[in-house]
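We modelled the chain as a single entity of 436 amino acids. Its sequence is:
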Amino acid sequence: MAVNVETLEKLERRITLSLPAGDIESEVQNRLRHLARTVRADGFRPGKVPMSVVAQRYGYSVQYEVVNDKVGRAFADAASQAQLRVAGAPRIAQKEEAPEGQMVFDATFEVYPEVSIGDFSGVEVERISAEVTEAAIDRTVEILRRQRRSFGLRGAGDEAAEGDRVTIDFEGKIDGEPFAGGKAADFQFLVGEGQMLEQFDKAVRGMKVGQSKTFALQFPEDYHGQDVAGKEADFLVTMKKIEAQHLPVVDDAFAKSLGIKEATVAGLRADVKKNLEREVKYRVLARNKGAVMDALLKASELELPKALVAAEAERMVEAARADLKQRGVKDADTVPIPADAFQAQAERRVRLGLVVGELVRRHNLQARPEQLQAHIEELSQSYEKPAEVMRWYLGDRERMAGVEAVVVENNVTEHVLGQVKVVDKAMPFDELMVGV
């Protein structure tokens, strides 16, 4: 029998499902009889509970399950027969009026949209490139030195200078009154490394152990402590200890201490360059992929299924809760996070997912096994034991699904770049490393 599909609005459709009441009742009785074999009730031996008691206790929940199962199967069959691509779960409502011996339900749902992708030939997409410079390698080696620096007490009478680690007591007051977070004892920080507000940092320079000093400090308007933002405080600081930093010499011994296979300065620089080039590659790819995805969105037209957007927004809410929980936020599971806050992001993700999926289908851009293998091998090279990392990926379907998604996006990026007008731009290393 042909399925009657009613078009409501845009992507919304409705199918009416009619089920024999007798089939539902028969299935309910079968399940209750099966349940009666194991159910326990006071005053009866196991398996000897009367059906009337079982039906009274479990009848409603069993009928609910049976109806859900029957309606679900009937809807799936009807959608398949009508060759519909259903987006999200249907909303099921039972109709009060129905022919005798029948139960009738309306299934309201959305279908996937037709995706219209325009001509890319006239679209300009900026493709960036970047190189690892000797200066970038120098800076990275310097960071490695600073990570392994040591500190030693300065001599009596020495003044605190840039790079020193100082230990101080301080107390701040606003209009003569203490404020939250404005007092500390044995507080350590590194002078000149941006750990304190600039006025505070400058005031400490030149102080000697045992010396106290008062100074005024203007909190910025955008200071994270809202109670003091934009206000002026008076601080009393007492210097208790000054330690000078000692940086290790960059030599073969230093390279060996870092676990470099070729324990020489040249080997260290080569290893740093290799790691930086890997990071540059990922960042360049992410930038170029973003530019391609923006171009795809501009060249595409489609209606968005509300159900998919709502589901994506809800996933983003759950991800936000998981992030809060990982950061140790109390009651992260119950913190109010409105899904509306993610509406725009959810719409973009769903739109991109549909457009990318259409391109993949049209042009056979699925991830090939050799691409997946190559991507995992590349990911594993940045770890100490690459073989274990590869097994970690290959042994989990969810992790492999994530790898597959990345490879597919890479395939789409390459395909689109082959269709558009590419504008190549060399980006300075420092600019690229600011962020993706």
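As a brief sanity check on the tokenised model: DSSP finds twelve helices and 13 strands in the chain. Residues 280-433 form a domain with the Trigger factor, domain 2 fold (CATH 1.10.3120.10).
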